[in-house]
Amino acid sequence: MKFNSRSLLAPLAAISAGILSLSLAGCATGISTTPTPPTTPTPPTTPTTPVAPPANPGVSFSGKVTAGSQPIAGATIQVYAAGTTGNGSAPTVLLSTPQTTDATGAFTVPAAYPCPASSSQLYVVARGGNTGTSTSPNSAITLATVVGPCNQVTASSQFVLNEVTTVATVWGLSQFLATGASLGASSTNTQGLTNAFATVANLANLTTGTSPGAAFPSNGISPAAKVNTLANLINTCTAATTDLTPCTNLFTAATPAGASAPTNTLDAALNLVRNPGTNVAALYKQSTASNAFTPALTTTPADWTLFISYTGGGLNEPGALGVDSTGNIWVSNYSDSTGTFGIASKFSPTGSPIFPTGIKANGLSDSYGLAIDASDNVWIPYEHSPSGLGAVSVLNSNGQSISGAAGYTAGNLYYPIAAAIDPNGNAWVINYGNAHLTLYSSTGQVLSGTTGFFAPSFAFPAAIVVDANHNAWIGDENDGFITRISSDGTQNLPVSCCNSPNGLAIDQRGYVWAANFAGDSISQISGSGTVVSNGYTGAGLDHPQGIAVDGAGTLWIANYRSPALTQLAGSASSNPGAALSPATGWAPDAALPPPPGSSTPVKLLEAFAVVIDASGNLWVTNFGTNTLTEYIGLAVPIKTPLIGPPQIP
Questions:
Q1: What is the DSSP letter of 12?
Q2: Could you tell me if 455 and 562 lie in one domain?
Q3: How many CB atoms lie within 10 A of CB 594?
Q4: How many angstroms separate the CA atoms of 240 and 583, rounded?
Q5: Which residues form the signal peptide (predicted)?
């Protein structure tokens, strides 16, 4: 049963005639600035210290550098191993003597230089060179591609460095890149970096230099046209010979207000992924001067975000979602009355369905909620069960039920709708039908008594987050209250603040943020219950439903009545709640291909939830189109699974 235009939770309307009917509201307006994260210095072109003796084998491969179809001769080639001391940290330079491309743009890396570790993630950067038959070097050229783990590269491996691989590298690795092609992650986020490298290979074929990648999933909708448009934009500079005006124009237009202009093509691309609203019309017009890569966009895009929508995997009215420790995406589905579709879906970090038709566990159906614990067990509350009042099913990482044949049913469950895991590993479950909370231990023991926890301010609870002190915060769908309740259920603090707070998030400083579905706004509440703001607006907010906080404390909101994402400044900002996305939000043109016989794309519909992974990608469920959409590289990574406030991985 789908949501209708009058109620967010229409399938639950039979529970009580008192559920609020939600009216539509128009879009608000905002500003379109996005801060550029700090950068680190340009990496040295020669090692500052010699690479250690070969504890690991030397890496060898070959490649070619091109501007479109033209070879770039005389380009300087350097191979790097990604840094391990933080995002954008200085990499290890592998080649003490950089290679130089020949007249055909070709180069070979000899097996004389060992990697720091066998699992080191390698990438290649080409700088300068002469395009085609030109004898004039173009110092503005900087192109890149990823190679992957050192121990998976062989002498027969071949790579292309061109504008497409550069776009894929910059967007896929944007949160790990700094100016000058420095690329690194913290030593505790190797998984996030590994998954980001895989995203690059999803966007571009590393052997042919075309988009999408060789292993791009068949259930995904390729962003090749936008990748090619960005590649053509860069090509206007890389193909330039004696007249470098296109480079100057590119660097000027790719500079956000108050920043210094880049001096090379890779840094210009990095500016665009970090500031995707920058001079879109002018840059798109410049891109049309090149047709090096096709197909390309035929109209000006809304912004420079890259996104991929995925289908399959049992998606059917998808609601909540979460990310496990390896970057897999789990989705709960409301399902349908026939049980044809799985009630849980699992996708790889690059969007491939792990279970082609989803997971049907315990015969349960109709779910809006999902939470993942530290052991990667997935807790899914369901409205309906054999008992008729709902249950909670817990799946292990292989999709197998570990909560018994009927799931967990004790603790006064009555149409459970949402769940959250606290720092102790306990699972909080909201019961929409009787306005109580059920608290389970990690092994399914009821910790909240036979009747569950209750507070007088509870009405129709719909959203929950847990703070660092193990308190739960609950948002009520049909009133303006958020309630804080202690882990033993004895203390509660009602906060009158909001307008149908259907989505909640908590940041690193303990502030609670509420997505006000009926108010087209976001509220901010301190950890002590003080209302800091009763409604930030604009930036594309339109019936906000899902909300998440990234590693920098920035807010990301999915809008139920708009396909666009909203970005707001967080509590540590000098202007909390300030609009960082345009008045129409980011990616309002995100859509599915036209149906047969039509030329009109299908807009993404009824965005329900949003989560952030350890690579900086945003994932959004679209309840109305049965899709899962990935917005690539926009957010600062967080540790997954998310338990309590977000943490830097």
A1: G
A2: yes
A3: 11
A4: 36
A5: 1-28
pLDDT digits (tens, 9 = 90+) for 319-369: 999 999 999 999 999 976 565 566 899 999 999 999 998 998 766 678 999
User: Per the structure block, which two tokens stand in for 47?
Assistant: 């090692």
3-state SS class at 287: helix
- Whether residue 20 is contained in a domain is answered as no
Q: Check whether residue 380 and residue 264 sit in a common domain.
A: no
Based on the domain organization, do 623 and 519 belong to the same domain? yes
Q: What is the DSSP letter of 63?
A: E
Q: DSSP E strands: which ranges in 449-520?
A: 461-466, 472-476, 481-485, 492-496, 501-506, 512-516
Work out the number of other CB atoms within 10 angstroms of the CB of residue 530: 11
The answer to whether the bond into 381 is cis (omega within 30° of 0) is: no
pLDDT digits (tens, 9 = 90+) for 18-63: 333 323 233 333 333 344 343 333 444 433 444 444 456 678 999 9
What local confidence, expressed as pLDDT, does residue 361 receive?
A: 73
Answer yes or no: do 227 and 373 share one domain. no
What is the DSSP secondary-structure string of 125-164? Answer: EEE--EETT--S--TT-EEEEEEEEGGG--TT-EEEESHH
**Is residue 416 domain-shared with residue 484, that is, in the same domain?**
yes
Task: Please indicate, yes or no, whether residues 150 and 193 belong to a single structural domain of this protein.
Answer: yes
Helices 224-238/163-172 angle, 10° precision:
120
Rounded to whole angstroms, what are the CA distances from 188 to 55, 83, 422, 528? 22, 12, 22, 32
Cα distance between residue 82 and residue 175, in whole Å: 13
Same domain, 205 and 339: no
Distance CA 164, CA 211 (A): 7
Q: What is the rounded CA–CA span in Å between residue 233 and residue 164?
A: 10
Domain stops at, among 275, 295, 317: 275
pLDDT band at 182 (very low <50, low <70, confident <90, very high): very high
Q: What is the pLDDT of residues 495-520, one digit of tens each?
A: 999 999 999 999 999 999 999 999 99
Residue-wise pLDDT tens digits, 610-642: 999 999 999 999 999 999 999 999 999 999 999
Which two tokens mark 84? 């391990």
Domain with 251, as residue range(s), is: 61-275
Beta strands 61-67 and 158-161, pairing class: parallel
Q: How far apart, in whole angstroms, are the C-alpha atoms of residue 108 and residue 64? A: 9
Q: pLDDT higher for 89 or 17?
A: 89
DSSP string, 335-368: --TT--S-SEEEE-TTS-BSSTT-B--TT-B---
Total tally of structural domains belonging to the chain: 2
The single-letter code of the amino acid at 497 is: C
Angle at 560 between CA 554 and CA 564, to 5 degrees: 55
